[in-house]
Specification:
The protein has one domain: Hexapeptide repeat proteins (UDP N-Acetylglucosamine Acyltransferase, domain 1, 3 Solenoid), CATH 2.160.10. 0% of the residues lie in helices and 32% in strands. It has no helices and 14 strands.
């Protein structure tokens, strides 16, 4: 059984498969797909049309860009984009 935390949004057309855990304040945008046993920590965002492979972990405050294909765990506060998903180099 999957579990969705408080104040989280699973948007239109998104799928959350078996044994997933979605933390508090998570936003799963339209058309995103999470395979089984995915763990999404609090305050994370899964972009429109993104796909997350089974048994992956998305860290607290992480952002998965739209259309990304997540094959590896995403660290806390990390932003990943692309196919396959890779960390976005943010310029300061």
């Amino acid at each position: 059984m999957s579990c969705v935390g408080r104040h989280s949004v699973i948007n239109t057309g998104a799928t959350i498969d078996h044994e997933c855990r979605i933390g508090d304040n998570v936003f799963v945008q339209p058309g995103a797909h999470l395979a089984g046993k995915v763990q999404v920590a609090d305050d994370a965002l899964i972009g429109i049309g993104a796909n997350v492979f089974e048994n992956r972990s998305i860290g607290r405050g992480a952002v998965v860009g739209g259309g990304a294909l997540v094959r590896h765990d995403v660290a806390e506060e990390q932003v990943v984009v692309g196919v396959p998903a890779r960390p976005l180099a943010l310029q300061r």
